[in-house]
Design a protein that fits this description.
Elements lengths: L9 E2 H18 L2 H16 L13 E2 L12 H18 L2 H18 L16 H4 L3 H4 L10 H21 L20 H12 L9
Antiparallel strand pairs: 1-2
Length: 211
């Protein structure tokens, strides 16, 4: 799908959102039109290498000649993509999609977590508000309740919890009106969440992190 009616770009956020919506609507209605759209969008994403096959980072869109753009971010692209893949898994129970969701999440954890384990953006410290404020997508935990692997489940649990704790502590906003608030991370996390993250990773065999 095009990003807007200017027909100038095909952005990841648009197509990943529609992929998830198509999959969910097909699951709820059994309307084959939604299945056709889901397959079309999935093929577009995979054929144009929007998901990097090595790092599992998500490019922001494709170029005019349908090759991956050079920008791997913002992180909300990964958030909506793992949601889409998990939704497809709900349809067919094919664990390939669940594994891909986990790899997308883990790839982001490795590439874009700071020394404290807190998720930051590729563009920090010079990001527009658009890039900074969508990390809540990961808090919805599309993936955790579908994982049978306890190690992977626990890794995500600790990481998601760290994001919630760090943002809750360091992003209290009392601006008036509330719409002026930007829920992005602005300070180092404290000792407790960092300790939880560090201890958990040290107790986990790195070979078990990827499917």
């Amino acid at each position: 799908m095009w990003f807007d009616n200017l027909f100038a770009s095909k952005q990841t956020i648009t197509n990943a959102q529609m992929l998830q919506l198509s999959a969910k609507l097909y699951r709820l209605t059994n309307n084959a039109d939604y299945l056709r759209k889901m397959n079309q969008l999935f093929d577009f994403i995979m054929n144009n290498e929007i998901i990097n096959a090595t790092t599992f980072l998500i490019t922001d869109g494709v170029t005019a000649n349908f090759t991956p753009g050079g920008v791997y971010g913002p992180t909300y692209n990964s958030g909506v993509m793992l949601g889409a893949m998990t939704e497809i898994y709900k349809l067919n129970k094919n664990t390939t999609y669940l594994d891909l969701s986990y790899n997308i999440t883990f790839g982001l954890m490795v590439q874009y977590s700071n020394d404290e384990g807190v998720l930051v953006e590729y563009c920090e410290t010079n990001c527009a508000d658009d890039a900074l404020m969508y990390k809540g997508l990961f808090g919805r935990n599309y993936l955790m309740d579908k994982l049978d692997d306890q190690i992977k489940h626990d890794i995500l649990f600790y990481w998601f919890n760290l994001q919630i704790v760090s943002n809750t502590i360091y992003n209290v906003c009392d601006l008036d009106p509330i719409t002026k608030c930007n829920g992005s991370y602005k300070a180092r996390s404290g000792l407790q969440p960092r300790l939880a993250w560090t201890v958990h990773l040290r107790c986990t065999n790195a070979a078990n992190l990827r499917p």
